[in-house]
Amino acid sequence: MLIALLLAAMVLAVLAYAVALARVVRANRVRPRLEAVGLGAVVNFFDTLGIGSFAPTTAWLKFRRLVPDRLIPPTMVVGLTPPAMAESFIFMNFYAVVVDALLLVGCALAMFAGGVLGAPLVARARVWIVQFIVAIGLALAATAYAMSNMGWFPAGGTAAGLPLGLTLVAIAASFGFGILANFGVGNYAPTMAMLSLMGMDPHLAFPIMAAGACLMGAGASVRHIAIAEIDLRIVLGLTIGGIPAVLVAAFIVKEMPIDILRWLVFVVVVYASAVMFRAAAIGRRSEKVGTTVSPVALS
Predict the structure, then answer these.
(1) Quick one: which of 6, 56, 68 has its CA closest to 245?
(2) What is the pTM of this model?
(3) Is the separation of the CB atoms in 134 and 276 below 8 Å?
């Protein structure tokens, strides 16, 4: 029963997102940016195979200066939500019937609540704060990539659920992950690590991560669209390129060796994190002395 209600909520989330995005795109007569279409295809293809999409997308948007730093997280969240929605229904179909229903639904709803509440926070935050949090997220993602390749990631257990106490801890943590997603910190790696350390089968973390991403992405995206501080051209490009890539990866390719690619992404993400930390430091210093730093200096 709980799983059926969660699936119904996910369908409603997809519809709410689609209506909100369609209205603003039609009103502004937006066309997708071709570069973003290619970016969406690449990052979501490998996201479905286990690389993750937030960190490489952030790095590319930063290096190419496609949007201002402060707009990277909300633009990315809105653009990557439809591919995440596609992944969520795929993973729910494969694994949801095995996972403890209370854990699955509780974590997904908590992530949704965090996403909704976190959206206005990133919109009101100072630029250097956004840059600093994004830099931390990139550093954590790079750490997760290295741990995966070195075999240091928590191995997990065989459990399909958790005791009540740990379930409540996981739900509370998922709320925090939902807030952080608005700042560009992906939820996949921290959720996987947390549940694995708690003794769950890592494969069964996928429906929890995906369902949470679907609901969180929809809730946060609707608010970001209303706030209107996103680049719609990038959003459309990530969406149009991402959904077909997810389907190809999930149903045609299914799996491939990605260790070497993960190391390449590690290098790029570490550099992007360093650049973001530097930009945040410059922005914070300029704020203290009451000066204005040019966008070039923060790039």
Answers:
(1) 56
(2) 0.84
(3) yes
